[in-house]
Amino acid sequence: MYAEPSGPIEPGTPARRGWRLAGSALAALVLLAAAAALWAWSQLSASLPQLDGSVPLAGLSAAVTVERDALGVVTVSGGGRQDVARGLGFVHAQDRFFQLDLARRQAAGELAELVGPAALPADRQARLHRFRDRARRALAAMNGGDRGILEAYVEGVNAGLAALRAKPWEYLLLAAEPEPWRLEDTVLVVHSMYFQLNDELARRESARGLIHDLLGGEMFAFLAPLGDPWDSPIFGEPYPPPPLPAAAPASHSSPDEAADEAADEAAVALRRPPAQPPIAGSNNWAVAGTRTTHGGAIFANDMHLPIRVPHVWYRASLVYPAPDGGTVRITGVTLPGTPAVVVGSNGSVAWGFTNTWGDWEDLVELEPDPADPDGAYLTPDGPRRFERHQETLRVKGGDDEPLEVLETIWGPVVDTDHRGRRRALRWIAHDPRAVNLDLMRLETAAGVEQAVAAANQVGAPPQNFVVADRDGRIAWTVMGPIPRRFGHDGRRPSSWAAGDRGWDGYLEPADYPRVVDPPSGRLWTANGRAVSGEMERLIGLGSYVQGARGGQIRDRLAALERASEADMLAIQLDDEALFLARWRELLLSVLGDAPSDPRRAELRRQVEGWGGHASVDSVGYRMVRAFRSLLAQRVFERLTAACKAADPGFDYLALQLWEGPLWRLVEERPAALADPELGWEAEIDAAVDDLLGYFLTGGSTSLAGRTWGDRNTARVEHPFSRLLPFARQMLDMPATPLPGDSHMPRYQSPTEGASQRMAVSPGREAEGYLHMPVGQSGHPLSPHYGDMHRAWETGEPTPFLPGPAVHTLVLEPAG
What we know:
Strand order of the largest sheet: 1-28-2-3-6-7-8-9-18-19-23
Helix content: 25-40%
Distance between the termini: 68 Å
Oligomer: single chain
């Protein structure tokens, strides 16, 4: 314990010398700490990109100019497409190299090599697909022209990385060195989007199979319907509701399960609204020139993805000579790691996407070879041995982990089902057709026919492709590979051993579904079922989302006599809660006109004044939403209990299309499907008790603080902020309450939302807008780290085209 000296310290005494040494040591430590801080700050500053001046860049045929406007939006101008690709790679690396690295590692199952053992679970799951090997096969199938552009892009990325005065700041914290970019890494970036936009383990197909196997055909038809009453297809009509099952599913309780009932009851005594898993979505639509204020077709798009730092997209304009002697100028958003503009306008056509949620994967039940059940399986050509691939998961700070991947003729073995049967995954992402650079064909498309033809050949996760052209025309099709199924509809797992079902290659572009120049002059998609009949059969009876969002967009468009770009933004920001209106009426009817319980009286007051919007200050909206979710949880836990018992990972609500079955049960209240102990009225009332029990604790009777904004507060975080909580204010975006929800055009959750919002009329780009969250740069010291975010939060339109140049960098041919 420290004590003050009792008297004066004589010069030259041991005590005096000790104090001098201690003071010197303390001063040295302070100097060392200051020097370390200065070094770290200098390294952090040195990893900022170069914005002005000139840089030699090998491989260029002529100088490339990189202009940045006040928001850091780049315009890359060069003498040809390869030069522009090289320049885009350069700026992607300077602003976002760590993002590129994470994307390739996530797809390849190589994250643990960079960040340590915590990433091993993700790596094990990703490595099942062996995407690095598949990426090399996709490269082998790429044509020479595209490969030349890709090679230029890759060389640009590595040159941009090398030109930084210090390695990107993330590697300083990780004590790691960035690895060079390779050709297959760009393919891996596209594979990473397959993970986001497809059901990479066919979980929904597995869940439907479980329902069919354990609950029977009637319950399967009811609980896994083909469509939804809210469906809003652009071609065809909604499906009629399936008939109600005659009886509830039989009980599958076992003595052990019965013994656990008391524990289960305790676990659900305080129910909380289920955390419904987000589903990658988006909105897009187009209005023909005959129905706009200026006579030009308008295209609008907001793609819904996880919102994090750095952001998934990077804004850019690419400018280079056209083959006919003119100039190609394409503006939109790029995906760092790839050389193409993903969504945008070239002055003649404007296009964008929503996720189709068609059926792009199948689970194949493997029949073991009786003579070698562990080593072989049956195929249409007889028994075949598994291919066994020995993978190594490299782990920073830990031992490497071996992983054996079993491959079949259909794809890798990914799991076993509730009956212990091995299952292989047939997924479009595994084939060379899955990835190509044909998206760049859109850069020179002159009209809807050329754009649609190009889209049908693109190798990317299949999307609803909507396009508008400068002649006022509009069209819809599917972009991406479509498998040609035979013998089955793909809705449930099945055996392909007999050869009577499977895939027979892919559709040719001429066979793709298309809707061109619809009589209404309007097209819209929002992840629900887009079309009916034969066109839907081609896409597959997939995992479409509930259709209310698309229907609200359709109706808003129909109400516009003449549409403008401002009208498009108003629809994108529409947070009216039309979908939940009938649930509000149900909740009010259950509460009654004058509830005697003060908690119920408070709930009724809030629901009556809910405002009808998913607004940040609405308590009533949050209560209505939670009531619906809690009731769904009660009802479907009961009806699908056998599925949960057979597979603890089973989640019925993840199937998305449960609104139709739930409302039908609530509206008709069939006795055969009621809770045998409670009945329908008591079960619905119990959901109100669940609601009050969750939101009113400790004897409180006030719901005033339980607003939707309190629940829907944005968490836009950098992956390092949880490791460095002291730096969260620097690394993360503000935690702002935001309006919107999943069943309305303004899609918003704490971690997902509109990754960009845009509307543009081809040829009138100066009248369009485009904004996105976060900012262009991945560097926290850059002024462009988060300078776009506020406009995205508030819905303020920022110009579609880049503004005047604030910085100019010239990339000059070297050597």
